[in-house]
Amino acid sequence: MLTDDYHPLKGKRLEVLKADGSVVKELDPKLDDATLLSIYRTMVLTRLADDKAVKLQRQGRLGAYPPTKGQEASQIGPAVAMEKDDWTVWAFRELGNLIHRGVPLWRLYLYWMGNEEGSNYVEGQRITPSAVPVGSQIPHSVGIAYAARSRKERTAVVCYFGDGGTSEGEFHEGLNFAGVWKTPNVFICQNNQWAISVPRSRQTAADTIAQKAIAYGFPGIQVDGNDVLAMYIATNEALERARNGEGPTLIESYTYRMGDHTTSDDATRYRLEKELEEWAQKDPIKRFRTYLVNRGLWDDAKETALNEELAAFVEEAVKKAEAYPRPTLEDTFKFTYEKMPEELEEQLAALRDDLGKEG
Ligand SMILES: Cc1ncc(C[n+]2csc(CCOP(=O)(O)OP(=O)(O)O)c2C)c(N)n1
Ligand SMILES: [Mg+2]
Questions:
Q1: 2-327, what's its fold?
Q2: Is the full-model pTM beyond 0.90?
């Protein structure tokens, strides 16, 4: 078992893909060529879609946005291991996982453009809306897992949060409950080294985030989060354990946020250029591309064609999101309760009145 071989107290980090694009043979998941190429496709699409979102925000066409550049492997590896009936409970920086699981890009743009309809995913798709209050999604994910088990579903729940999320009470409450009740959860902490301007060293005095699992009584593992194959195999094993009733796992995805915290942030004010340069060498997309080239699956011509195709796809998604009808004032009030309570009726009337005066 990977979680034994890479027990947090052994001080090892799981790596499958080396920097030169070669694989550690005994860990190679031996995915077929079509799967490998689909992983690469989502990685490139995520990078392009992410860059575009930042540009749209700068042009005033999209609201505050949290860039995901550098964390693609950490999101797509687990998505490949997940099955249709599994849940993604995400924070706000998990674009790659959602795209790979089939959420239409235009819907995600719609959400970041400020329209809640953007969280109305494909019917039956098991993905919660984004959770901006840090850590709040962790107990939710445990509740979903507990309910799935009560219904005798063979379903697992992948819950994402950041290194900063581990300092919230909800982290303790969620993981403690999950350990006691052996819920089918896979917790993925994207340790991207920063929580806005707070570095990982100020977040916890523990050597690793993975080792926190020991106190909750379940396996933890630190994984190279810029290695899509390592993230795949670690999540795959954790999902199997969850589905077999063997309880939760904590995966620390050791990665890096290459962009700003959000488009409202300027990371140059608190971190050194040198750090960014070092992590750029470990870019998850470059590393996986080298692996594909070495296997004879990829070349420059394919790269150019893919980039052109995906850039056009991203433009179409922007058009579709921008053409979507804007929410009405009523929509803001309508969807929390089946029937709008009197109090909300009054607030809506008051707001209409105010806007009427301004207008
Ligand atoms: C409860 C709460 N406190 C503070 C904030 C403001 N805030 C938004 S993101 C963030 C940092 C989160 O860091 P981390 O969990 O490491 O995730 P990352 O942003 O690095 O992906 C903070 C403090 C918030 N949204 N919710
Ligand atoms: Mg972080």
A1: Rossmann fold (3.40.50)
A2: yes
